[in-house]
Amino acid sequence: MSTESIDVSNANVPAGGETLGPNDEKWLGEYSQVHMNVFGTPLRVMDHGKGTRVWDIDGNEYLDFLAGIAVNSLGYAHPKWVEAVSEQAAKVAHTSNYFATEPQIRLAAKLVELAGAPEGSHVYFGNSGAEGNEAALKLAKLYGRTLPGASPAMGGKPARIIALTNGFHGRTLGALSATWKPAIRKPFEPLVPSIQFVRAGDPFALYEAFAETGVGHYGKGPVAAVIMELIQGEAGVKPLGADYVKQVRQMCDIHNALLIIDEVQTGIGRTGSWFAFQREDLSGGITPDMVTFAKGVAGGFPMGGMIAFGSKLSALFTPGSHGSTFAGNPLGAAAALATLSVIERDGLVANAEERGCQLREGLMATGNPLYVSVRGRGLLDAVELSHPCAHAAMNWCLEHGLIVNAVRADALRFAPPLIVSEQDVDDALAILKAVPTDLPND
Ligand SMILES: *Cc1c(COP(=O)(O)O)cnc(C)c1O
């Protein structure tokens, strides 16, 4: 089917744009009465979904190229996922960590295998990306205490954790301390001390930060860890570059610092490999010391966590070091096992790679002058716009039946479900091709 055959002017939405359907309007009014206003007013009230499509409460259909922010790996209501979650719910949904369950054990083993982590690697489960990063930061702190010059008992200086400008690691106080964006971080300062930012992509800045370690009065504590994304997702889908990542790894090795790769957004097949660090063109082939994951892992069930590479590092967490009531919940574990097994069975990692190429090439081939350049890997992509009208473009797409994300004022982000078909990408491109070039700035 050619992209021309899609009549975007006839999408199932009110003409003239801004008007919401009556049910959307009613429920959004009630929403703001009872919800704290941290998310702004939601765009629509969603009712149900199937595959790559979702319907709002007024019955309007949307092709979803955001997938709940890279979460719904299998799209909506995938039969295998629904079956696995239903069966597990009917068996046992929650036990606490006084008890273990088979799905949880199988999932941890599967994640270690998919990450290609060495013998003796261990998993910690939490319930979100931020919690995966909290676990990583806490483990890094314990590791930091083992470094010469950092032992509190010996009067040492606290070990540092280095994070990058434009990085995003979550909203809890620890993860927020390593998150760059001043507008969301500054109001909550003072935050966790001894976390220091260096300029992303600049190896010399990192070299200098390492060189600040010193025994003298002015020297700082040793560096316990560097935490970073390989593609900075919230910053607008920006790959750091394989050369830089390799240099970071080398500097960490020289200084006995850990390298934490935040794969909350990039992990679980999204970038065309199980984890982004496994892509030579993103990582230069490095091996991390910790990987954090969340978003796509359980196909819509809240789950996250961290894999510590090797037994020595894993062993720094002992009973009482960390925990969470819901962590490793069997319902979430069953959802994740089903998600991973469908990704494997249906070759969705390769599909992410192919559909991503189709999307990026297709965007530039639309000839729409609004689109300046594309970036990303697999199905985590963005298009740079000729002027800062991303919110207007996102709203226009929504009104024409396509969900995309205004990740920055000058960029749209795409993160469709990994099940997305060639036809779905063509359908999305037909709508994207028709986006007016003269939209107002945000
Ligand atoms: C979304 C995201 C997080 C935070 O995950 P939550 O589940 O929202 O806590 C952390 N790191 C990265 C890279 C993310 O994209």
TrEMBL record:
The family database entries (InterPro entries) matched by this protein are listed as: AcOrn/SuccOrn_fam, Aminotrans_3, Aminotrans_3_PPA_site, Class-III_PLP-dep_AT, PyrdxlP-dep_Trfase, PyrdxlP-dep_Trfase_major, PyrdxlP-dep_Trfase_small
Q: What is its main location?
A: cytoplasm
| Source species, domain of life | Bacteria
As to how many cofactors bind and how, the note says: Binds 1 pyridoxal phosphate per subunit.
State the Gene Ontology BP annotations.
L-arginine biosynthetic process
**EC class:** transferase
- Ranges annotated as biased composition (Polar residues): 1-12
Which Gene Ontology molecular function entries are recorded, alphabetically?
A: identical protein binding; N2-acetyl-L-ornithine:2-oxoglutarate 5-aminotransferase activity; pyridoxal phosphate binding
| Amino-acid positions noted as binding N(2)-acetyl-L-ornithine in the UniProt annotation, renumbered to this chain | R171, S324
Q: Which UniProt keywords apply?
A: Amino-acid biosynthesis, Aminotransferase, Arginine biosynthesis, Cytoplasm, Pyridoxal phosphate, Transferase
Enumerate the Gene3D superfamilies for this protein: Aspartate Aminotransferase, domain 1, Type I PLP-dependent aspartate aminotransferase-like (Major domain)
Q: Name the positions where pyridoxal 5'-phosphate binds.
A: G129, A130, F168, D262, E263, V264, Q265, T325
Which PROSITE patterns does the record cross-reference, listed alphabetically?
A: AA_TRANSFER_CLASS_3 (PS00600)
What positions are modified (N6-(pyridoxal phosphate)lysine)?
K295
Question: Which parts of the sequence are annotated with region: Disordered?
Answer: 1-24
Query: Which reaction is catalysed here?
Result: N(2)-acetyl-L-ornithine + 2-oxoglutarate = N-acetyl-L-glutamate 5-semialdehyde + L-glutamate
Q: What is its EC number?
A: 2.6.1.11
Q: What else is known?
A: May also have succinyldiaminopimelate aminotransferase activity, thus carrying out the corresponding step in lysine biosynthesis.
* Family membership: Belongs to the class-III pyridoxal-phosphate-dependent aminotransferase family. ArgD subfamily.
| Assembly mode | Homodimer.
Its protein name is Acetylornithine aminotransferase
What organism is the protein native to?
Bifidobacterium callitrichos
User: Where is the organism placed in the taxonomic lineage, from the top?
Assistant: Bacteria, Bacillati, Actinomycetota, Actinomycetes, Bifidobacteriales
